[in-house]
Amino acid sequence: MDELVIDNVNLIYHTLKKLNMYHLLEEYYDVGMIGLVKASKKYTEEKGKFSTYACTCIANEILLEVRKQKSGKRNAEVISINKVIYSDDSGSITIEDTISSNECIEEKIIEEEQYRIMYKLIDELKASDKELIKNYYGIGREKMTQLELAKCMKQSQTQISRRIEKLIKEMRSKVR
User: Could you give the angle at the alpha carbon of 143 between the alpha carbons of 138 and 145, nearest 5°?
Assistant: First the structure.
């Protein structure tokens, strides 16, 4: 398998070029490598020629990453705990210096207040919406998947997904 990956690294360049993303090589090479490794693990001869299969896997992995970035799910910057956040003549303070092993009372109070607000917002919902949210997030009961909820409520999974999304947006708008 390792040999298969090493022998086909050029497929990453080929796929990026085919997707008109060659100028983004540095950002997506690693993602392409993940696609190539997945292809080498899942490949069987019934799937046809390896290079064709691998190019599809690489392209899918890159396009998935592009969609994640566009939706904002992976735009968070990675920061080291050794990053200096304050510095003067007497020394510097890093993020690690500010991390306390003791429980922060302020954070606990804020968290409890957020839970109180969330439960209040849930209680203000219609009975069916309240049950949907409580079942989906496992509030006071076992969590249920959208598919399980859809079967119970005799709706499609898509309808359940849209209802949950709409309810969350409504609750967020009331908090802001």
Answer: 135
Which residues, at least 6 apart from 22, have a Cβ–Cβ distance to it below 8 Å? 13, 16
Question: Is the Cβ–Cβ distance between 148 and 136 less than 8 Å?
Answer: no
Q: Which helix (H) or strand (E) is 85 found in, with range?
A: strand 84-88
Alpha carbons 155 and 150: distance in angstroms, whole number = 5
Beta-carbon count within 10 A of 12 CB = 24
pLDDT of residue 1: 57
At residue 25, does pLDDT exceed 90? no
0.70 exceeded by pTM: no
Q: Could you say which architecture CATH assigns to the domain 124-175? A: Orthogonal Bundle (1.10)
**Helices and strands per DSSP (H, E), number in the chain:** 9, 2
Segments making up each domain of the chain, as ranges: 2-70, 124-175
User: How many Å apart are CA 133 and CA 151, to the nearest integer?
Assistant: 15
